[in-house]
Amino acid sequence: MSIQLPSDLFLANLSPTDSSLVVRMEDRVREAVSPRKLIAASYLELSEYEDLGHCQTTLIACPESVSTHEWGGEDQDRLFRSFEQAAWHVRWREQDLYVIRVSWETNCGTASRFWIAADAVETAEEFLLDAKRKTNDPGESILVFHGGYWQRSKELYKATQQASFDDLVLSGTLKDSLRDDFHRFLAARERYESLGVAWRRGALLIGPPGNGKTHCVRALVKELNIPSLYVQSLASRHYTSEEMLRTVFERARQLRPCMLIFEDLDALVNEENRSFFLNQLDGFEKNVGMVVVATTNHPERIDPAILDRPSRFDRKYHFGLPGDAERRSYLELWHAKLVTETGWESDTIPSLVSATDGFSFAYLKELVVSGLLRWMSNPAPGFVETLRSQAAELRSQMTTATTLSTGSLSDIAGE
Predict the structure, then answer these.
(1) Global pTM value
(2) Residue 293: which of 193, 188, 186 has the closest Cα?
(3) Three-state SS for 205?
């Protein structure tokens, strides 16, 4: 048996927007779906639930839905449709349900409400509970926190699956130590609990940009294979950073064991939210099973209460500029990839190691990639000579960048 919703359902009830909107809206919805029973939810990932194969939905034509279309960018060259106001018929476990979504603007941003109609309250509740459980785990995506909301990023997840420790060159035993430490931690839950020690871990990756911290985090996400959450920003027009941090930690605790990632921690935590961040980080039972991984290019900007107290970040890994051995290993990796195409002589690598003293891994990559492109357009000097020329050019850029970053405002302005 189908339902007949009034054609002016959204238009008539979304104006004016005030505190009675939800009450008036629910009254009209309840009237429209009677004798079915109704429950409400603040949020429901209906499309994700359907994509996972747990239900089938059909958009109801009347009232006409309100939706937006956004381009997915060059990587996903198609339009993505999202709904602000809409109603669906849902086929779930041999039963017919109806879901109605309404969203509206408030002084604190966008608010929304989902109503679920079924033959019995118990059916609607079972549907909502199962949908919440099934869509809570990010699956083959990374949960990214930005603008006050969590969003699933399948693109970032794919990037982590392409990362590998095999492509990462680090000094000494750092790579093996880091990998082994995390694997041992995740395998030792029973051991921690038998000793009465909280099964949680905090790790801080420290060092100048371009030396493998981000690559290492992505490789860890792939290897550990646990739900991962990435905090991109705590900025919001409507909420304080403390409220944002509460939202971050609450979602992470729902997914334990999980990895919670704060990239550029020094830019996320400041004097205003530091105490609250520490309280969230210090949660004992609440944080069991949580791996908090943070990175920073500027440890001097981080409060000692965060940086130096072992119970918060009990592991610190330093990613410094690569020495001669690391630069040689990195260039040898590229040599193995390019030797057939370029004729790169292996005995020239030591001279390139000397020419790149002080280069980060990012600069070394730029050396090879930009040198390859230049050589392809003009192969006459030879590939190695092109690399040497490119190394001198990059070193000049590094010198200019250092002068600008250390100069005074008047120096930069040319006064």
Answers:
(1) 0.78
(2) 186
(3) strand
Contact 177, 183 (CB under 8 A): no
pLDDT tens sequence across 293-312: 999 999 999 988 888 776 78
Q: Cβ(302)–Cβ(265) under 8 Å?
A: yes
What pLDDT band is residue 400 in, cutting at 50, 70 and 90? low
CA 263 from chain center: how many Å? 9
d(CA 278, CA 265): 13
pLDDT tens digits, 306-340: 887 767 888 999 999 999 999 999 999 999 999 99
Q: Phi and psi dihedrals of 71, rounded to 5?
A: -75, 135
Contacts 24+ apart (CB under 8 A), 21-26: 21/104, 22/113, 25/102, 25/113, 26/113, 26/115
Q: Which amino acid is at 218?
A: R
b/e sequence 159-193, b meaning 16+ C-beta within 10 Å: ebeebebeebbbbeebbeebbeebeebbeeeeebe
Residues constituting the chain: 415
Q: What is the mean pLDDT of the chain?
A: 88
Report how far residue 48's alpha carbon sits from residue 139's, in angstroms, rounded to the nearest whole number. 11
